[in-house]
Amino acid sequence: MTLTKGVFTGVHFWQGDIAVAEGALAAGCRFFAGYPITPASEVAERMSKRLPPIGGVAIQMEDEIGSMAAILGASWGGAKSMTATSGPGISLMLENIGLGMMTETPCVVINVMRGGPSTGLPTDWAQADIMQAKWGSHGDYGCIAVCPDSPQECFDLTVEAFNLSEQYRLPVFVLTDAAVGHMTERVLVPEDDKLDITPRRLTSKKPGEYRPYDYGKNLVPDGVIAGQGYNIHITGLTHDEKGYPVMTAEVQDKLVRRLNDKIRNNADKIVMLDEKNTENADVVVVSYGIAGRIVGPAIEMANKEGIKTGFLRMKTLWPFCEKRIRELSEKVNGFVVVEINYGQMALEVERCAGGKSKVLLQEHMGAGVPTTQQILEKIRKAAK
Prior knowledge:
Elements: E1 3-4, E2 7-8, E3 10-15, H1 16-27, E4 29-34, H2 41-50, E5 57-60, H3 64-76, E6 80-85, H4 87-103, E7 107-115, E8 121-125, H5 130-135, E9 145-146, H6 151-168, E10 171-177, H7 178-181, E11 184-189, H8 249-264, H9 267-270, E12 273-276, E13 283-287, H10 296-304, E14 309-314, E15 316-318, H11 322-329, E16 334-339, H12 345-353, E17 358-363, H13 372-383
Parallel strand pairs: 4-5, 4-6, 6-7, 7-10, 9-10, 13-14, 13-16, 16-17
Antiparallel strand pairs: 1-2, 3-11, 7-8, 9-15, 12-14
Helix pairs in contact: 1-2, 1-6, 3-4, 10-13, 11-12
Protein backbone atom coordinates (compact mmCIF):
# COMPACT_ATOMS: atom_id res chain seq x y z
CA MET A 1 0.00 0.00 0.00
CA THR A 2 1.34 3.44 -0.95
CA LEU A 3 0.10 6.97 -0.36
CA THR A 4 0.14 8.79 -3.69
CA LYS A 5 -1.34 12.27 -4.10
CA GLY A 6 -3.32 11.74 -0.91
CA VAL A 7 -4.80 8.41 -2.06
CA PHE A 8 -4.09 5.06 -0.37
CA THR A 9 -3.48 2.65 -3.22
CA GLY A 10 -3.64 -1.13 -2.88
CA VAL A 11 -6.16 -3.48 -1.28
CA HIS A 12 -8.36 -2.36 1.63
CA PHE A 13 -11.27 -3.63 3.71
CA TRP A 14 -13.55 -0.60 3.64
CA GLN A 15 -17.10 0.37 4.42
CA GLY A 16 -19.03 1.72 1.43
CA ASP A 17 -19.18 5.24 2.88
CA ILE A 18 -15.41 5.22 3.41
CA ALA A 19 -14.90 4.00 -0.16
CA VAL A 20 -17.02 6.92 -1.39
CA ALA A 21 -14.76 9.37 0.44
CA GLU A 22 -11.61 7.70 -0.88
CA GLY A 23 -13.01 7.70 -4.41
CA ALA A 24 -13.62 11.42 -4.12
CA LEU A 25 -10.04 12.00 -2.99
CA ALA A 26 -8.73 9.87 -5.86
CA ALA A 27 -10.79 11.95 -8.32
CA GLY A 28 -9.16 15.12 -7.01
CA CYS A 29 -11.84 16.38 -4.60
CA ARG A 30 -10.27 18.93 -2.29
CA PHE A 31 -13.36 20.60 -0.79
CA PHE A 32 -16.14 18.97 1.22
CA ALA A 33 -19.08 20.67 2.92
CA GLY A 34 -21.76 18.72 4.73
CA TYR A 35 -23.98 18.30 7.75
CA PRO A 36 -24.22 15.13 9.88
CA ILE A 37 -27.01 12.72 8.94
CA THR A 38 -27.46 8.97 9.24
CA PRO A 39 -26.45 6.92 7.27
CA ALA A 40 -24.06 9.28 5.43
CA SER A 41 -22.09 10.76 8.34
CA GLU A 42 -19.14 8.41 7.82
CA VAL A 43 -18.42 10.13 4.50
CA ALA A 44 -18.11 13.51 6.24
CA GLU A 45 -16.04 12.04 9.07
CA ARG A 46 -13.60 10.49 6.63
CA MET A 47 -13.28 13.64 4.55
CA SER A 48 -12.71 15.75 7.68
CA LYS A 49 -9.76 13.53 8.62
CA ARG A 50 -8.28 13.03 5.17
CA LEU A 51 -8.57 16.44 3.49
CA PRO A 52 -6.54 18.79 5.76
CA PRO A 53 -3.26 16.79 5.59
CA ILE A 54 -3.31 16.93 1.77
CA GLY A 55 -4.18 20.63 1.53
CA GLY A 56 -7.92 20.25 1.22
CA VAL A 57 -10.80 21.76 3.19
CA ALA A 58 -13.66 20.03 5.00
CA ILE A 59 -16.39 22.15 6.57
CA GLN A 60 -19.40 21.24 8.67
CA MET A 61 -22.02 23.76 7.60
CA GLU A 62 -25.02 24.99 9.56
CA ASP A 63 -27.34 22.82 7.48
CA GLU A 64 -27.71 21.05 4.15
CA ILE A 65 -28.84 24.23 2.38
CA GLY A 66 -25.54 25.90 3.21
CA SER A 67 -23.61 22.74 2.36
CA MET A 68 -24.88 22.68 -1.22
CA ALA A 69 -24.28 26.41 -1.62
CA ALA A 70 -20.72 26.00 -0.33
CA ILE A 71 -19.72 23.30 -2.81
CA LEU A 72 -21.12 25.37 -5.69
CA GLY A 73 -18.98 28.32 -4.61
CA ALA A 74 -15.93 26.12 -4.11
CA SER A 75 -16.34 24.71 -7.60
CA TRP A 76 -16.34 28.18 -9.16
CA GLY A 77 -13.23 28.83 -7.07
CA GLY A 78 -11.51 25.98 -8.91
CA ALA A 79 -11.85 23.10 -6.44
CA LYS A 80 -13.43 19.77 -7.18
CA SER A 81 -16.13 19.66 -4.50
CA MET A 82 -18.60 17.25 -2.91
CA THR A 83 -21.31 16.95 -0.27
CA ALA A 84 -22.90 13.87 1.28
CA THR A 85 -26.30 13.43 2.90
CA SER A 86 -29.44 11.30 2.92
CA GLY A 87 -33.06 11.84 1.84
CA PRO A 88 -34.12 14.62 4.24
CA GLY A 89 -30.89 16.49 3.51
CA ILE A 90 -31.41 16.16 -0.24
CA SER A 91 -34.86 17.68 0.22
CA LEU A 92 -33.22 20.77 1.72
CA MET A 93 -30.54 20.91 -0.97
CA LEU A 94 -32.86 20.77 -3.95
CA GLU A 95 -33.15 24.52 -4.58
CA ASN A 96 -29.38 24.89 -4.73
CA ILE A 97 -29.07 21.69 -6.76
CA GLY A 98 -31.31 23.43 -9.30
CA LEU A 99 -29.01 26.45 -9.13
CA GLY A 100 -26.07 24.16 -9.88
CA MET A 101 -27.90 22.71 -12.86
CA MET A 102 -28.77 26.18 -14.20
CA THR A 103 -25.29 27.62 -13.69
CA GLU A 104 -23.69 24.38 -14.94
CA THR A 105 -21.47 23.94 -11.92
CA PRO A 106 -19.52 20.67 -11.69
CA CYS A 107 -19.72 18.95 -8.29
CA VAL A 108 -20.84 15.65 -6.75
CA VAL A 109 -23.79 14.98 -4.42
CA ILE A 110 -23.76 11.73 -2.43
CA ASN A 111 -27.15 10.41 -1.28
CA VAL A 112 -26.88 7.42 1.06
CA MET A 113 -30.56 6.54 0.84
CA ARG A 114 -32.63 5.54 3.85
CA GLY A 115 -36.32 4.74 4.34
CA GLY A 116 -38.80 7.59 4.14
CA PRO A 117 -40.95 9.68 3.85
CA SER A 118 -39.95 12.29 6.41
CA THR A 119 -37.67 10.99 9.17
CA GLY A 120 -38.63 7.46 8.20
CA LEU A 121 -35.97 4.85 8.90
CA PRO A 122 -32.78 6.76 9.78
CA THR A 123 -30.66 3.63 10.23
CA ASP A 124 -32.16 1.38 7.54
CA TRP A 125 -32.05 1.36 3.79
CA ALA A 126 -34.41 1.98 0.93
CA GLN A 127 -34.15 3.07 -2.71
CA ALA A 128 -36.97 5.58 -2.79
CA ASP A 129 -35.03 8.74 -3.75
CA ILE A 130 -34.64 7.72 -7.40
CA MET A 131 -37.26 10.03 -8.87
CA GLN A 132 -36.25 12.78 -6.45
CA ALA A 133 -32.82 12.87 -8.07
CA LYS A 134 -34.28 13.41 -11.53
CA TRP A 135 -37.30 15.57 -10.77
CA GLY A 136 -36.63 16.99 -7.30
CA SER A 137 -35.71 20.54 -8.21
CA HIS A 138 -38.15 22.59 -10.25
CA GLY A 139 -37.88 22.99 -14.01
CA ASP A 140 -36.43 20.80 -16.76
CA TYR A 141 -32.76 19.84 -16.73
CA GLY A 142 -30.59 16.89 -17.64
CA CYS A 143 -29.50 14.65 -14.78
CA ILE A 144 -26.76 12.08 -14.20
CA ALA A 145 -27.02 9.62 -11.31
CA VAL A 146 -24.89 6.53 -10.73
CA CYS A 147 -25.73 3.68 -8.33
CA PRO A 148 -23.10 1.39 -6.76
CA ASP A 149 -23.87 -2.09 -5.46
CA SER A 150 -20.69 -2.62 -3.42
CA PRO A 151 -17.91 -0.75 -1.61
CA GLN A 152 -15.72 -1.33 -4.67
CA GLU A 153 -18.28 0.42 -6.86
CA CYS A 154 -18.67 3.12 -4.21
CA PHE A 155 -15.05 3.94 -4.95
CA ASP A 156 -15.17 3.41 -8.72
CA LEU A 157 -18.48 5.19 -9.39
CA THR A 158 -17.59 8.16 -7.18
CA VAL A 159 -14.51 8.65 -9.36
CA GLU A 160 -16.75 8.32 -12.42
CA ALA A 161 -19.26 10.80 -10.96
CA PHE A 162 -16.52 13.43 -10.68
CA ASN A 163 -15.40 12.69 -14.25
CA LEU A 164 -18.95 13.06 -15.56
CA SER A 165 -19.51 16.27 -13.60
CA GLU A 166 -16.45 17.80 -15.24
CA GLN A 167 -17.22 16.46 -18.70
CA TYR A 168 -20.84 17.65 -18.79
CA ARG A 169 -20.67 20.50 -16.24
CA LEU A 170 -23.42 19.75 -13.75
CA PRO A 171 -23.95 18.32 -10.23
CA VAL A 172 -23.83 14.51 -10.47
CA PHE A 173 -25.54 12.19 -7.97
CA VAL A 174 -24.13 9.04 -6.41
CA LEU A 175 -27.23 7.17 -5.20
CA THR A 176 -26.01 4.55 -2.79
CA ASP A 177 -28.02 3.31 0.22
CA ALA A 178 -27.58 2.47 3.89
CA ALA A 179 -26.99 -1.23 3.13
CA VAL A 180 -24.18 -0.61 0.64
CA GLY A 181 -22.89 2.43 2.54
CA HIS A 182 -22.49 0.43 5.76
CA MET A 183 -21.33 -2.78 4.09
CA THR A 184 -17.65 -3.65 4.51
CA GLU A 185 -15.85 -5.46 1.69
CA ARG A 186 -12.59 -5.64 -0.22
CA VAL A 187 -11.76 -2.52 -2.23
CA LEU A 188 -8.88 -2.27 -4.68
CA VAL A 189 -7.49 1.21 -5.29
CA PRO A 190 -5.31 1.31 -8.42
CA GLU A 191 -2.11 3.28 -8.79
CA ASP A 192 -2.39 6.88 -9.96
CA ASP A 193 -1.30 6.14 -13.50
CA LYS A 194 -4.14 3.61 -13.86
CA LEU A 195 -6.84 6.01 -12.68
CA ASP A 196 -8.70 7.83 -15.45
CA ILE A 197 -9.33 11.32 -14.04
CA THR A 198 -11.06 14.06 -16.05
CA PRO A 199 -9.59 17.52 -15.39
CA ARG A 200 -11.60 20.71 -15.09
CA ARG A 201 -12.65 21.85 -18.57
CA LEU A 202 -11.34 25.40 -18.82
CA THR A 203 -11.48 27.88 -21.65
CA SER A 204 -8.45 28.77 -23.74
CA LYS A 205 -9.96 32.19 -24.49
CA LYS A 206 -8.65 35.34 -22.89
CA PRO A 207 -10.67 37.66 -20.63
CA GLY A 208 -12.83 39.85 -22.82
CA GLU A 209 -13.15 37.14 -25.47
CA TYR A 210 -14.78 34.55 -23.24
CA ARG A 211 -18.53 34.13 -22.77
CA PRO A 212 -19.47 31.75 -19.92
CA TYR A 213 -22.27 29.94 -21.77
CA ASP A 214 -20.87 29.89 -25.28
CA TYR A 215 -20.84 26.24 -26.32
CA GLY A 216 -19.76 24.03 -29.22
CA LYS A 217 -21.14 20.90 -30.84
CA ASN A 218 -21.14 18.97 -27.58
CA LEU A 219 -23.46 21.60 -26.02
CA VAL A 220 -21.16 21.95 -22.96
CA PRO A 221 -19.49 25.33 -22.37
CA ASP A 222 -15.92 25.62 -21.11
CA GLY A 223 -15.41 27.09 -17.66
CA VAL A 224 -13.19 29.54 -15.82
CA ILE A 225 -11.94 29.93 -12.27
CA ALA A 226 -12.87 32.94 -10.16
CA GLY A 227 -9.95 35.29 -9.59
CA GLN A 228 -8.21 34.68 -12.90
CA GLY A 229 -9.27 37.97 -14.44
CA TYR A 230 -12.53 36.95 -16.10
CA ASN A 231 -15.27 39.52 -15.59
CA ILE A 232 -18.41 37.45 -16.15
CA HIS A 233 -21.99 37.22 -14.92
CA ILE A 234 -23.40 33.96 -13.51
CA THR A 235 -27.06 33.72 -12.51
CA GLY A 236 -29.84 31.27 -11.82
CA LEU A 237 -32.12 33.39 -13.97
CA THR A 238 -32.74 32.45 -17.59
CA HIS A 239 -29.66 33.78 -19.35
CA ASP A 240 -27.96 34.13 -22.72
CA GLU A 241 -24.45 33.01 -23.70
CA LYS A 242 -22.98 36.03 -21.90
CA GLY A 243 -24.63 34.93 -18.68
CA TYR A 244 -26.91 37.98 -18.65
CA PRO A 245 -30.55 37.52 -17.57
CA VAL A 246 -32.84 37.60 -20.60
CA MET A 247 -36.41 36.62 -19.72
CA THR A 248 -37.89 35.73 -23.09
CA ALA A 249 -39.49 32.58 -24.45
CA GLU A 250 -36.80 32.30 -27.14
CA VAL A 251 -33.86 32.38 -24.71
CA GLN A 252 -35.68 30.05 -22.27
CA ASP A 253 -36.30 27.55 -25.06
CA LYS A 254 -32.71 27.58 -26.26
CA LEU A 255 -31.21 27.33 -22.76
CA VAL A 256 -33.47 24.65 -21.32
CA ARG A 257 -33.25 22.48 -24.44
CA ARG A 258 -29.47 22.59 -24.20
CA LEU A 259 -29.43 21.76 -20.47
CA ASN A 260 -31.41 18.63 -21.30
CA ASP A 261 -29.88 17.73 -24.65
CA LYS A 262 -26.27 17.83 -23.44
CA ILE A 263 -27.23 14.73 -21.43
CA ARG A 264 -29.83 13.17 -23.74
CA ASN A 265 -27.60 13.38 -26.80
CA ASN A 266 -24.76 11.68 -24.94
CA ALA A 267 -26.80 9.02 -23.15
CA ASP A 268 -25.09 6.17 -25.02
CA LYS A 269 -21.73 7.37 -23.67
CA ILE A 270 -22.99 7.92 -20.12
CA VAL A 271 -25.16 4.85 -19.45
CA MET A 272 -23.37 1.96 -17.72
CA LEU A 273 -25.03 -1.47 -17.45
CA ASP A 274 -24.08 -4.87 -16.08
CA GLU A 275 -25.84 -7.54 -18.17
CA LYS A 276 -25.88 -11.32 -17.94
CA ASN A 277 -27.63 -13.70 -20.35
CA THR A 278 -30.06 -11.10 -21.72
CA GLU A 279 -29.72 -11.80 -25.44
CA ASN A 280 -31.72 -15.06 -25.53
CA ALA A 281 -33.76 -14.54 -22.39
CA ASP A 282 -37.50 -15.03 -22.01
CA VAL A 283 -37.50 -12.87 -18.87
CA VAL A 284 -35.06 -10.16 -17.80
CA VAL A 285 -34.74 -9.17 -14.15
CA VAL A 286 -33.94 -5.44 -13.86
CA SER A 287 -32.47 -4.04 -10.66
CA TYR A 288 -29.85 -1.75 -9.14
CA GLY A 289 -27.86 -1.13 -5.98
CA ILE A 290 -28.46 -3.43 -3.02
CA ALA A 291 -31.55 -4.92 -4.68
CA GLY A 292 -29.36 -6.15 -7.53
CA ARG A 293 -27.29 -8.25 -5.13
CA ILE A 294 -30.15 -10.48 -3.97
CA VAL A 295 -31.72 -11.57 -7.26
CA GLY A 296 -29.09 -14.16 -8.23
CA PRO A 297 -30.57 -17.23 -6.49
CA ALA A 298 -34.04 -16.61 -7.97
CA ILE A 299 -32.56 -16.22 -11.47
CA GLU A 300 -30.58 -19.45 -11.04
CA MET A 301 -33.67 -21.35 -9.88
CA ALA A 302 -35.73 -19.98 -12.79
CA ASN A 303 -33.12 -21.11 -15.30
CA LYS A 304 -33.13 -24.59 -13.75
CA GLU A 305 -36.90 -24.66 -14.29
CA GLY A 306 -36.33 -23.96 -17.97
CA ILE A 307 -37.21 -20.26 -17.89
CA LYS A 308 -34.43 -18.47 -19.75
CA THR A 309 -33.79 -15.59 -17.37
CA GLY A 310 -31.30 -12.77 -17.82
CA PHE A 311 -30.19 -9.95 -15.56
CA LEU A 312 -29.75 -6.25 -16.22
CA ARG A 313 -28.27 -4.13 -13.44
CA MET A 314 -28.29 -0.38 -13.89
CA LYS A 315 -25.07 1.25 -12.75
CA THR A 316 -26.39 4.50 -14.24
CA LEU A 317 -29.95 5.36 -13.22
CA TRP A 318 -30.11 8.71 -15.01
CA PRO A 319 -30.09 9.06 -17.91
CA PHE A 320 -32.28 5.97 -18.01
CA CYS A 321 -31.27 3.08 -20.28
CA GLU A 322 -34.22 3.66 -22.62
CA LYS A 323 -32.50 2.32 -25.72
CA ARG A 324 -31.58 -1.00 -24.15
CA ILE A 325 -35.00 -1.60 -22.57
CA ARG A 326 -36.67 -0.92 -25.92
CA GLU A 327 -34.32 -3.36 -27.64
CA LEU A 328 -35.02 -6.09 -25.09
CA SER A 329 -38.78 -5.47 -25.15
CA GLU A 330 -38.78 -6.66 -28.77
CA LYS A 331 -37.39 -10.05 -27.66
CA VAL A 332 -38.51 -10.97 -24.14
CA ASN A 333 -41.86 -12.04 -22.71
CA GLY A 334 -41.47 -9.82 -19.71
CA PHE A 335 -39.39 -7.86 -17.24
CA VAL A 336 -39.29 -8.24 -13.47
CA VAL A 337 -38.14 -5.05 -11.75
CA VAL A 338 -36.79 -5.56 -8.23
CA GLU A 339 -36.34 -2.42 -6.15
CA ILE A 340 -36.57 -1.28 -2.54
CA ASN A 341 -39.47 1.14 -3.02
CA TYR A 342 -43.08 0.98 -4.22
CA GLY A 343 -42.14 1.03 -7.89
CA GLN A 344 -40.13 3.92 -9.33
CA MET A 345 -37.80 2.53 -12.00
CA ALA A 346 -40.50 -0.04 -12.82
CA LEU A 347 -42.47 2.87 -14.28
CA GLU A 348 -39.54 3.77 -16.53
CA VAL A 349 -39.19 0.16 -17.69
CA GLU A 350 -42.92 0.00 -18.39
CA ARG A 351 -42.78 3.27 -20.34
CA CYS A 352 -39.93 2.07 -22.53
CA ALA A 353 -41.35 -1.43 -23.01
CA GLY A 354 -44.36 0.29 -24.56
CA GLY A 355 -46.71 -2.65 -24.03
CA LYS A 356 -44.55 -5.05 -26.07
CA SER A 357 -43.46 -6.93 -22.95
CA LYS A 358 -45.19 -7.24 -19.61
CA VAL A 359 -43.52 -5.50 -16.68
CA LEU A 360 -43.92 -6.88 -13.16
CA LEU A 361 -42.74 -5.12 -10.02
CA GLN A 362 -41.26 -6.87 -6.99
CA GLU A 363 -41.29 -4.11 -4.44
CA HIS A 364 -40.10 -3.76 -0.86
CA MET A 365 -40.71 -0.72 1.35
CA GLY A 366 -37.30 -0.75 3.01
CA ALA A 367 -35.33 -2.16 5.96
CA GLY A 368 -35.17 -5.48 4.15
CA VAL A 369 -35.17 -7.12 0.73
CA PRO A 370 -37.64 -9.26 -1.22
CA THR A 371 -37.30 -13.01 -0.71
CA THR A 372 -35.94 -15.38 -3.33
CA GLN A 373 -39.37 -17.03 -3.54
CA GLN A 374 -41.14 -13.72 -4.17
CA ILE A 375 -38.77 -12.88 -7.02
CA LEU A 376 -39.05 -16.40 -8.47
CA GLU A 377 -42.85 -16.19 -8.49
CA LYS A 378 -42.69 -12.92 -10.43
CA ILE A 379 -40.28 -14.48 -12.95
CA ARG A 380 -42.71 -17.36 -13.46
CA LYS A 381 -45.61 -14.96 -14.04
CA ALA A 382 -43.57 -12.88 -16.47
CA ALA A 383 -42.66 -16.00 -18.46
CA LYS A 384 -46.29 -17.08 -19.03
